[in-house]
Amino acid sequence: MANKTNNRPLTFNIALWFGYIFSGIFLLYGGVQIVLSFLDRNFGDIFQLIVFTIIGLICIAFVIAFQELKKWGWYGLIALYSLIIIFGLIGYSHYENIIIALLSAGALYTLFSSETKNYLANQA
């Protein structure tokens, strides 16, 4: 295991850690807001918060599969980063969405870089 982590290219690690950070944000936001809604006894938007948490769990599943060099994890991250870009461009009036879309475009580039693809092909 230690040998695999030492030989990973930088582009693989960037795509991996961006996925962990993005998934963690979804999980953290959904979990904290669910706890706060229970404390405030405000259950009006609890379904939306549960959806945020489920999306975070699905995203973390893609990231873990990518880390374990599963093909479906790579495809899942491509779909995830592409959706982030699309939703970021839809809400282009806010500069935060543009920043997130640009970061996701960079992470998507790292998924398609030759170093990452060669690493995935050699490990399979």
Description:
This protein has helices spanning 2-6, 10-40, 46-67, 71-90, 95-112, 114-123. It is an all-alpha fold and 124 residues long. The chain has one domain. Helix 4 runs antiparallel to helix 5 (95-112). The longest helix has 31 residues, at 10-40. The protein is globular, with a radius of gyration of 16 Å.
Query: Strand-and-helix sequence, N→C?
Result: HHHHHH
Count of helical segments? 6
Helix content: over 70%
Instruction: Report the uncertain regions.
Output: none
Structural class determined from secondary elements: mainly alpha
The average pLDDT value, as a whole number, equals 86
Q: What is the number of E strands?
A: 0
Spatial extent as radius of gyration: 16 Å
The main pleated sheet reads as: none
Strand portion: under 5%
Shape: globular
Measure the end-to-end span.
15 Å
Write down the domain tally: 1
List the helices and strands and how they pair.
Layout: H1 2-6, H2 10-40, H3 46-67, H4 71-90, H5 95-112, H6 114-123
Helix pairs in contact: 2-3, 2-5, 3-4, 4-5
Structure keywords:
124 residues, mainly alpha, 6 helices
Summarize the structure.
With 124 residues, the protein is mostly helical. It is built from six helices and no strands.
